[in-house]
Amino acid sequence: MEPTNQPKLEQLPAEMFTIIKAASNGIGPRLGTLALPGRKAIQTPHYLGLTSRGVVPHITQDNFARATSISGVYVGLEDFIEKAPPHTPPLYQFKPPDGSSPLRRFIALPEQTLLVLGARRTPPLAAPSANSNTHETVAVCTAVGFRTLRAEYYAEVVEGLKADIVVGLGDIPFGRALGHKRVVKATDRTIQWMQDHVTRRRAVVERTAQARLFAPLLPVSCAKQQHYIDSLTQDLASAISGLAAYDLASLGDLPDSLGHLPRLGFTAPSTPHDILQHIAHGIDIITIPFVIAATDAGIALDFAFPPPARNATNERDLDNPLPLAIDMWAATHATGIYPLTTGCECYTCTSHHRAYLQHLLAAKELLGWVLLQIHNHHTLDLFFAGVRLSIAGGTFEQEVERFAQAYESRLPEKTGQGPRIRGYQYKSEGRGEAKKNKAPFTMLDDGREKLAESALPAANADASELEEQGFAEKDVQ
Amino acid sequence: MSGLSGLSVPEDMVLRPRPSALKFDLVTKCSTTKARAATLQLPHGPVSLPMFMPVATQGSLKGLTPKQLEETSCRLCLNNTYHLGLKPGQKTLDAIGGAHKLQSWPHNILTDSGGFQMVSLLKLAQVTEDGVRFLSPHDGTPMLLTPEHSISLQNSIGSDIIMQLDDVIATTSPDHARIEEAMHRSVRWLDRCIAAHEKPHSQNLFCIIQGGLDLDLRRECCEEMVARDTPGIAIGGLSGGEAKAEYCKVVSTCTSLLPDNKPRYVMGVGYPEDILVSIALGADMFDCVWPTRTARFGNAVTSTGVFNLRHASYAYDFRPVEDGCKCTCCRPPSEGGLGITRAYIHHTAAKETAGAHLLSMHNVHHLLDLVRQARESIVEQRYPSFLRAYFGKLYAGDKNKYPQWAVDALGGVGVDLMA
Ligand SMILES: [Zn+2]
Ligand SMILES: [Zn+2]
Questions:
Q1: If 0-12 CB within 10 Å is exposed, 13-18 middle and 19+ buried, where does residue A104 land?
Q2: Are B294 and B306 in contact (CB under 8 A)?
Q3: Active site residue B369
Q4: How far apart are the first and last CA of chain B?
Q5: How far is the CA of A278 from the centre of ligand 1 (A)?
């Protein structure tokens, strides 16, 4: 369908993404500003908070607004469509009285926070079968298991939800490599889906409230998806406001003509070292699943960029890299009346202390994860601020090198139990399978329900330990 | 009352009042019912009575930050001594400087003695004159919790109100001799608790009236305990499955014997109707885990009843959890709230912890606000009409559905719900 009002349609606001500083060859870290109407401008490089069913795990919306500085979030449509088909998902029927974004209002996201919508949550669960996508559909994972999402349907519904940014649908086989033949197929499909989506958008007369469309890049080099890249630089160029990268490979030979677009990374860094590397490859806004995993593991992130000054001539410093995080389960924190990390100014660290965190984790109280999530995201905020400063000052490369020397290469191993496994970690694949959450204790009597309120102490604590804690005395009659 | 114990201590004979860390100011007495409005000055600030106290078992309230709990208007919450005694334990509590510091809660805390939890949670607990014997939940080693231990632990916790260790017997127990023994033992244990209490100037020890459903035993216990002049008085052993009519008789009998100038706390109560009726019977303080526990299962407590938002019918219900509710969850964004819909609670219930947190915020706020409204009506001498309006709304005007026990109990204090 050839749109009739073409000239008006091509007035894409050029000011959405401004590159402040970038290497002349197009590859490398860069500084920018992402500004969308009504939202607080985001200085890049930055990150997006990841949501599950519309919420950053554990963080109720009032805490989000008050106790975090998360400037943008990513939402996966698959979290909202378990009723379809045959029913219309509730979200599509929600019409806020003031005509504002149904998605934003449904999840109670603050007005100033950037809202990015895509098909799959991050990190996505890999589909059970190897060829889960078809010419018309992709496999998505809803609360009731894997379903197919039609590309046409996706393009239709995401436009109605009024997010700020929509990531177009790509034929990305999560969890699997793209073989040569499969790349050809994926390229064709993604071209088709994106063209259909853009055509649909161009047919809309009132475009002021339209979300910006980001084009997904297949997780291979641009050369390997050349037809699609050609389409992006030609017929789709005027309709695309940004790129979504699923692998650093697609940034290596990105043509100059796409260089002005902001790059959203779904590149799954697993450490801060990875984040720095991805930034060095030119990712502007990145999603960081390991933050949420760290929180659930009871781990408080503890790294800064640039890294603290250490004595390069001091062999002790060089031989003893700093840990990237602190395991809050450790009993050594039990009486620590000081912040999770020194000098941290987050809500958690200014209102609470390590001892409380340790207690909450040991007692399996949900608040522990709330407080950790707040601290961990604050740590990221500071980390990215430091990254931007160093890029501005031209010291990024050196600081990355120092960072690599100063810190351990991996996050500490998880020692404690996480919260109850929730939807985003595990999806039911059918009836009759074993429970994933073992009851934290078993009681033989009717105290079960009362005790369900709170777990008993570790099963390996013995009576003399209890006595030492002062709970009661051993009965020595 | 004569002949019950031979002990009778008129108020004017209490020459040396025991040290107390509270000040009770009676504001209004309802001219119809036995309800009272009062202000209670506690070490961590004043609270208004009647009052509902949410239960933060292990030093946190179901995922809510102390800041969020404060926003529900809560100024006194419960911690459980049994749980804090196990985790983080007394040594750690001493090192940290008590439970207020542990959880950064600037307001008041009340702790139970730990005995009830022990008896109700550990089937093999056994009560002797020394204390509560039980097998360690970890390795089965025999342990003993004494009145002295309980007070020492609560001294370490530093709660503003601490409870005596009492001998708790289910009111439904058929063993009358045992119930009588438990009542007398509770009095003896109160003496041991008073003697063991090291911080009477900063922590208020409440006695606990026992005696099962036997009103004579309850009377005798009231007399004995009132004579011991603790800063506050609790009515214990209830909410254990007894008939509501029996419960009301016990509460009313006790409040009639208790001095006007002390707070009265009915332990483990309860549901909104129970609280409002108990207020009419002269009780001031209530605690219950129900609003938060039930939130975890997706239950919303509202003035028109309890609704399970996990039910499919709420998936498309875009109204707030309760229309007109002023909690952070329900208030629209235009009033600084979140404007959370029932559909969103449905969307997250049992799937994301935040869904339960939001509902806990609403439920706790609902209970606190209900009791606040009750107090307002007492101050304005319109508690009877408040009660009639409450039951009318809850049962959508269908008086046939009113619970008989509530009709009878309120009738006994001059409020005819059926009028
Ligand atoms: Zn912090
Ligand atoms: Zn509410």
A1: buried
A2: yes
A3: no
A4: 35
A5: 25
Q: Which of B260, B287, B323, B416 is catalytic?
A: B287
- Closest by Cα among B75, B79, B69, B78 to B47: B75
Written as tens digits, the pLDDT of chain B (419 aa) is 333 444 444 444 444 567 899 999 999 999 999 999 999 999 999 999 999 999 999 999 999 999 999 999 999 999 999 999 989 999 999 999 999 999 999 999 999 998 887 777 766 688 999 999 888 777 778 888 999 999 999 999 999 999 999 998 878 888 999 999 999 999 999 999 999 999 999 999 999 999 999 999 999 999 999 999 999 999 999 977 899 999 999 999 999 999 999 999 999 998 999 999 999 999 999 999 999 999 999 999 999 999 999 999 999 999 999 999 999 999 999 999 999 999 999 999 989 999 999 999 999 999 999 999 999 999 999 999 999 999 999 999 999 999 999 999 999 999 999 98
Burial class of A57 by CB neighbour count within 10 A (0 to 12, 13 to 18, 19+)? buried
Which has the closest alpha carbon to B312: A55, A103, A87, A422? A87
Q: Does B85 touch chain A (CB under 8 A)?
A: yes
Structural domains in chain B, CATH included, are 52-258+266-276 (3.20.20.105), 294-381 (no CATH)
A148 class by beta-carbon count within 10 Å (0-12 exposed, 13-18 middle, 19+ buried): middle
B4 contact A CB<8A = no
Environment of ion ligand 1 (residues, CB < 5 A): A 340, 344, 346, 348-349, 375
Residue B116 annotated in ligand binding = yes
Whole-angstrom Cα distance, residue A158 to residue A37?
Answer: 18
Q: Is the pTM of this model over 0.90?
A: yes
**A344 C-alpha to center of ligand 1: Å?**
5
